[in-house]
What does this fold into?
Amino acid sequence: MRTTITILAFILIQCGVYAQVQISGKVTDSRKEPLPGANVFLKDSYDGATADSTGHFSFKTSLKGIRQLSVTFIGYKPLLKNLDLDSTKTIVLNILLKESDAQINEVVINAGAFEASDKKKAVMLKMFDVATTPSAQGDIFGALCTLPGVQKVGEDGRVFVRGGEGYETKSFIDGMLVSTPYMSKMPDMPTRGRFSPMLFSGTLFSTGAYSAEFGQALSSIVDMKTNSLETENKSSISIMTVGLMASSTKCWKNASLSLSGDYVTSGLSNLINKQQVDWTKSPSGVDGTLMYRQKTGKTGMFKTFATFNNSSSGMIYPNTVSGTSQDILLHSTNIYLNNTYNSMLGEKWMIKSGLAWNYDRQKFDLNQDQVGTNQKMFQAKLQFVHNMNEQTELKFGTDWINFSYEQNIRMNGNYRLPFTNNELSGFAELEYKLSKKFATRVGARIENSTLLNETTLVPRLSAAYRTGNHSQFSLACGQFYQNPENDYLKFAPQLKPEKASHAVMTWQYQTEQKTFRVEGYLKKYANLVKFSQPLAINPLDYNNSGTGHAEGIDVFWRDKESLNLSDYWISYSWINARRNYRDFVQAAIPNYVSEHNLSVVYKRFFEPLRTYASVTYSFASSRPYHDPNYSGFMNAKTQPYNDISLSLTYLMELFGKQSVLHLMVNNVAGFDNIYGYNFSNTPNASGKYDSTPVKSPFVRQIIFLVSIML
Amino acid sequence: MKTLLLTTVLLLGSIIGFSNEAYEKAMTESIEKLFQAQNIPQYVEIANQFERISGIEKSEWLPLYYASYAYIMISFQETDNAKKDQILDQAQKYLNQAMAIDPNESELHMLQGFLYPSRITIDPMTRGMELMPEMNKSLDKSLELNPDNPRVYYLRATMTYHMPEAYGGGAVKALPLYQIAVEKFRIFKPKTAISPNWGKEIAEAELKKIQDSLVK
It folds into this structure.
């Protein structure tokens, strides 16, 4: 009995010690909105509660002394608070949690930029979208042509941005320059990019006012990011109506190696698809690509990317200008090699470095004449990124490009046109987030060219302000220099860099499934190359007195949820552009500009048919051209351009392997698009200048391919 | 008298510190609630409880395992894709902490394999290609550590069932996999009373559903 009493007494004493404290209150965010589900508890104890639908919580504890209260919730910074449990029996708390920085609703600087990425959550396009856009036929640059701000220039194939020429868009791979991103092209024939979209996990396409990291581009940059470390061994072979393709990937713990190669020939395709060109040798070529990735240390990544291409084609070109037919044979070889190494240096610093080498050789045989062109580019780039604090990031670096060009012409004698340029640049950029709603970026770039003997310094500025949960307003402006095209520099190395100034204003609304974006811009050109006649040999015929301007509005709408199983985007651009450059006699709309451009891309997965179908409709209003039979300059207009392209992807099993059948049809409706006219230099017997229309090499093109994963 | 003594011992235990028994009791209660949870708030509440337990039992991977499991279940119910990713980030965070405690636990690799499909549903076209191999790697690792883990067989069966026939999926191909999974569940013995022991009922129910659909 005595024991029992002792125990009872003991229990009673313990109960006294165990006097409970009631802790209650409310958890809210900075806008006083309740945060149901927040976890409120005393650290290192079971005592705690979850905030209810009104943000309220309440729990009791028997703990004593100074204890730490911990409050956690997804998307918010955890909060720790000391509580004195001895002094009172009830504690009432109002707890305010701050959003963590990783929230996607943060303001981002994006004026002028379109990003396709598989890694980031909020982007307008994925690389898969690029690869399956029918009008692009698997060409990255072709897919960019469905975005606003890009002109449809069917006879060229390059990316013409906001009143700029094709050469004003520069391409990069992992931030390193590619001096020859397009295949060598025949006169009036469209070219395409050298690289398969499958090699990349993202593309940054800027249509204006881009970062100081990039220079030597008047209008636009395309920065393609190669795939990261592969994690799965895989191989595939593809058989196409235009050739054969094979690829294989091998992985190790911290490294991966991918090899791919193809043989492409349009011989068979040219038989199936009626040609509007007299081919003497069907375009054909071999390509090889190697990618090696190696993880070094905890954060380091070393990447090697190498491609090789050798191709040839031949055609009879009705040269209306000179009035003779030309038998053209083209052989070209291209090698691109790029090594990059990125790594963190401690917690706050990051190093990005790279070496790139590009070699390109083209040989044209024109009847008995010959034109050979060699280009070599070497680039070294070093960049540091410093996260000074949560609001501030500093980026700076330097970039050296050695470019040499040589053209050998055998045409009534031998001519040699060589030049070499060393371009040394430096840049710095500071990004500062004043608040979660407002961010600014200030940068500058300095460039020095040994050939042009000129140093330029340009500013870049941008700012973004968040106007709502899903919307933001951005502004950007900057100045850009680019050396004149090789075709002018080879005659006249005394020329100065051409200059452009951009101002861009954007409003964007974006949710996970929908994007609406409207962008207005003003662009001014100065120092454009002017000459009295094309192909003038005398350097003094060239000067930098050309000018130009462009202004316009670009609209983009993408919706992935409103239509069942469907995804579509619409791009519309309006542009007003004039130039007085080259041999123009007065300011006029250049021949590659159409006032209105529209693209509609629609994609849908038909599950019962296991088929993924995509359709593109493209429209461009008429383009101006100069008709010497009438008075005035750039006095005529082409018919508007229309195209409907279709692709079907069918998933199946072949010989027990996963396989894909892919069918692409360009210009399904067979529109007879005329891009412009070539006029004879001299009038015919009746005093008229003869002309021929510039058209696509085919009316309609059908490509079929089978891919088997091994 | 005996009861009184027992109570005292229990009380003393709780005063000295949290006994193993208290841990197991808290876990047992929480696990029971976890598998009764129906909606997001209930799952969040139970996940919070596991988070609190994991704060004390720093060498146990189980509280983190269940916290992660709860968040994966939440992700299946969430319809906003942006939020879904955040929820899965949270599930991954708990899972990473658990893996740090015991990197060679078959159940943790299984749970990793269970997390990926939810990520894939956010953007099947682009994420499928990237994450399917990751998922297979996790499940292979899980089987390497425990060749009889029934949940791996169950997950593989479900994935096969939901895959298009063109990619080697469909009911016919899934049926034998379900049968193996159900058999593995039948012989499965959890290591402790609070070790992972879920999936049996649903595997059996799905097997029956498929058998019925194939008979028709």
Summary: The domain at 11-146 of chain B is CATH 1.25.40.10 (Serine Threonine Protein Phosphatase 5, Tetratricopeptide repeat). The longest helix of chain B spans residues 124-145. Chain B touches chain A through 42 residues (CB under 8 Å).
